[in-house]
Amino acid sequence: MKTLIIVFILSTGLTICAQTKNISPKYLTQEQFEKKIDWQLTQIKEVPTAIQNLNIHNNNVQKTSANGGRIVRSIFAENIVNSKLLAINTEYAVYAQVLFVDSTVVTSSASGNNPIWQHAAGAIFDPTSKYWGSNGKPLLDKVDLYLVDTVYIGGVYKQVNFNVNDTLIIDCVWGAPNNSSLFSALAISSQSVSFRIPYLTNSTAHGHFSSIVDNAGAPVPATNYKRIKRVLSTRDTLKSANDGYFVIPTNINVGAGEIFMVSVVYKPGSVVPPLSVMYQYQGGSPQTQNSFRAYFYSDPSSTANYNFIDKKSYSGCFYHHQLGRYNKFTNSILNLCGYPDSESGWDIGFSVTYPNSSVGLDDFEKTGASLSQNYPNPFKGETTVKYTLINPAKNVSINIIDITGKEVYKTNADNQIGAHSIKLGSHLAAGVYYYTLNIDGATSSKKMIVQ
Predict the structure, then answer these.
(1) Residue 19 and residue 26: Cα distance in Å, rounded?
(2) For the whole prediction, is pTM greater than 0.90?
(3) Segment 332-352, tens digit of pLDDT
(4) How far apart are CA 69 and CA 355, in angstroms?
(5) Which has more confidence, 163 or 136?
(6) Which of 158, 237, 261, 346 is buried most deeply by CB count within 10 Å?
(7) Cis ω on the peptide bond leading into residue 300 (within 30° of 0)?
(8) Contact, 1 vs 282, CB < 8 A?
(9) Has residue 316 got a pLDDT over 80?
(10) Alpha helices for 321-416 (secondary structure H)
(11) Peptide bond before 249: cis, by omega within 30 degrees of 0?
């Protein structure tokens, strides 16, 4: 058995205020955290081959605006491992953590029983992170739409009671990262990293099951929220089932500039008595209830490496923990608290389809507009310039400059969606000129010749 304290924010002495619903913010030092929490981990000896050897990141070729694409079972932590060429068992390893709705149950080992405080495991998909794309580039730009069609949850389900129907609850939330009604903002100031996590309901009642809410405690509207229930079966107890992943179809369209979050909670199909043993470590008491353990990546030799973050996006992982329920454990820090996970990454993957990627395109191309070469060219008298708008614009104009850079002509143009044409050049003397289409500040220019 291995004990690891993931105190990513506090490991440098930094304190953090956890912004969660229905609790008073509290500040923790590293010493306080280590005294109050004992997180029991066990390294997986038989990690499914898919977890160790998948290289989805390198197989996803970056697309251009002319073509859509799809990434399949792409995992943030795994992509970082591949990108940074981290060595297994020295710079990273795969572990398992028991998830449960309550902290009144325990894991058991030779050293005694310990409360299970990991409530929910979550992952954030922000397509602007370079770890989703290829060649060190983001997958998508902020102007691109995308569809999250499937979520993959790495984990293992162990049954000792075959007469109940346990369930994984998968909550999906999406929206603009600056939407404070949907997301709580956290940061690691020493690393200049900003995080976003969802709000959860809170209760001191035994067996309470948390739900994602907005910052006022109200249900999140269906335009930004979807709950999926995955009933577990005996087949899920096989490590070879789905290559060690629980496959969750989602089919959620996400808007331009929005991030997508998934939170996973295990809900038992029967009433679980306090002090039930959910997992048996070496030398511990036998497991008495069914349990779900989620896989995650972490550095076995460090608790302050900050490997699993991207400072230029919101991509990453988070967790919610609960302590001190039902007066069974008195070492309560916060009844419900959420933290970004920077020193480890949950084995949660995404399959994402996108119609276009604007990465590497200039501002004009990102508008989706097109500007054609004038015809005829060269010309005498007049020439025709055609352009197309696929999005409405506020201001559209065309101007002409000569080879000295002097503006010789400017006119407003049609700003409605559709194909347009305009006649130019009737007043121009022979020579070389450049015409420019300006759409709300985004420009494209081409050369024309007057004979």
Answers:
(1) 9
(2) no
(3) 333 344 555 567 788 999 999
(4) 7
(5) 163
(6) 346
(7) no
(8) yes
(9) yes
(10) 363-366
(11) no
Q: Which structure tokens are listed for 291?
A: 């349990």
**CA 421 – CA 387 distance, rounded (Å):** 6
H or E stretch at 152: strand 146-158
CA geometry: angle 165, 167, 171, nearest 5 deg: 160
- Listed residue (319, 316, 300) closest to 308, CA to CA: 316
d(CA 60, CA 139): 9
Cβ atoms of 400 and 438 closer than 8 Å: no
Q: How far out from the chain centre does Cα 245 lie?
A: 18
Give the whole-angstrom CA distance, residue 171 versus residue 271: 22
Spatial separation of the C-alpha atoms in residues 247 and 57, rounded to whole Å: 18
Of 316-320, 339-343, 425-429, 440-444, the range with the highest mean pLDDT is: 425-429
170: amino acid identity, one letter: I
Query: What ranges in 61-215 are assigned the alpha helix state H?
Result: 76-84
For residues 133 and 313, the answer to whether their CB atoms sit within 8 Å is no
pLDDT tens-digit readout, 19-45 = 333 322 233 333 333 333 333 333 333
- State both tokens at 259: 């991030």
Residue type, 435: Y
User: Which residues 6+ apart lie within 8 Å of 230 measured at CB?
Assistant: 167, 168, 169, 170, 246, 248
